[in-house]
Amino acid sequence: MPDARVSNTITGRDAFLRVLSDEGVTKMFGNPGTTELPIMHALSSAPEMGYVLGLQEAVIICMADGYARASGKLVSCNVHVAPGLGNAIGSIYTSLMSGTPMIVTAGQQEQGHGLTEPLLYAPLVPIAQPVVKWATEVSRIEDLPRILRRAAKVATTAPTGPVFISLPGDILNNEAAIDMASATRVDTAVRPSDAALEHLAKRLLSAKKPVILAGHEIATSDAFAEATALAETLGAPVLQQTVAWGAHFPSEHAAYLGALNRDQKYVRRVLSDYDLMFCVGADVLKMSVWSETEPLPETTAVAMVGLRDWEMGKNFPAEIALRADVKETLKALVPLLKKLGGAALADKAKASLAEIATRNWSAQRAARKAKLTQPASEKPLHAEWAMMRLVDKMPKDAILVEEGLTSTTTLFNYFPFRDRNSYFGNVSGGIGWGIAAAIGVQIAHPARRVVAVIGDGSAMYSITALWSAANQKLPVVFIIANNAGYQILKNRLKLFHGNDTPIGMDFNDPPMDIAAIARGFGVAAERVDTATGFDDALDKALAKTDGPSLIEVMIKS
């Protein structure tokens, strides 16, 4: 019960939790400091708000990001004043890139006390503003519910993303008669006009060789069935967007060719076979390092549908750009294509799918698997063999969380996306997300097994997250690929500069013992460097259901 001391009044801290709960928030991820003690005090009488403790602010945001992305729910994160918010900024940036609906709050010094510039003080709103959709500070207790309601609405309205609220101590500790208001949700599940749909349908039918670029809005709008119906109706091959950070199309479907990468020359070569690229909820050829080569050929036109109009025509002109929900659009588009295309389209699509099946993802996987070997006694392991073997042993409904960079480059040649929640990856490139995000994903899907494949460099950014996994008794299996360095940097140093003598990129003096670190956090862990050892350790980890396991896999660099 609220600890209000006057009839019809409530403290700010209790109002804060009550409004969050009414907005559908059931999980708060946090690391408390003195300015957050009012919230921690209120949590004592609000057990329905499940609190998950993280040991550093960047870890907290990543755990919450994984939870929100996997559950589709609004999530709350509570960090500690200026240094804590500073620790969290890189992770909030990742959540902004992934469009994660998240309310980030930080306790702030009492109004007036901040004027004296006490320990840990800084204006919080300017720190947060570059990486959130909206940032504000509460200056009147009466405004707290209105601000929280607005924050929830902004965070959950497409394009979704994080928001930030600074909570001064006096606001949390004071009490007043407050109008708690009610929740607002903006329905963005809209479809284009009939005229726009017909224009798109006719353009798709007129293309000689269209290709579908599948993006993350297929997952967030729950449009797997509609996307496959589109591919089957057109007989068009499907490629996944260049930054593959979610399960965007069923890998085992006959039309699926695989994911594009971020090599501009390769992408241009692949797309040159097609005269129209239909981007379905996708980032349009997002790249990493600079190249003088443009990834989109001049002969490939672009049509787009999705809710993020900023992406439309941002880098490449879009002949057709429809700001609409992917699922609702495809539900209307597919019947229209069938009507306009008739029997001729059906026959063409059938023949096209039969031809694609000879070179699709499944055919490529079978060919690679047939050639792959790993001698039982050879050590350390080849990364590709370890990835293939891992996929073979994972439960069919397992969820993969991945941040392996170089060690996992071949993983998606073997791991099939079977549903929209089967895979979660890092969208921003800022490392340290994966090991913590896996915890949030497992909390969101307790009935499914989460397997996280993380590189040694990435793991060290957020290794304390292992304690939270043990504390929550989550059955996550962490696979840490240890190649004793920042292999991606060593590769690029050699590729870009011809330098094969890297400085500051190796972890061999002294070598890391990640399994020992994990055991120190209460996680069952072992190190393996042979095929037999890997098989045995993985079987043991998958059989364990009362807490996390970690396998440190020594990988050839």
From TrEMBL:
Domain Thiamine pyrophosphate enzyme TPP-binding residues, every copy: 409-553
Gene3D superfamilies reported for this sequence: 3.40.50.970, TPP-binding domain (3.40.50.1220)
CDD domains in alphabetical order: TPP_BFDC, TPP_PYR_POX_like
Name recorded for this polypeptide: Benzoylformate decarboxylase
Name of the gene this protein is made from: mdlC_1
InterPro entries membership: DHS-like_NAD/FAD-binding_dom (IPR029035), THDP-binding (IPR029061), Thiamin_PyroP_enz_cen_dom (IPR012000), Thiamin_PyroP_enz_TPP-bd_dom (IPR012001), TPP-bd_CS (IPR000399), TPP_enz (IPR045229), TPP_enzyme_TPP-bd (IPR011766)
GO molecular function terms attached to this record: acetolactate synthase activity; flavin adenine dinucleotide binding; magnesium ion binding; thiamine pyrophosphate binding
Keyword Signal in record: no
Domain Thiamine pyrophosphate enzyme N-terminal TPP-binding: 11-111
Any Pfam family the entry gives: TPP_enzyme_C
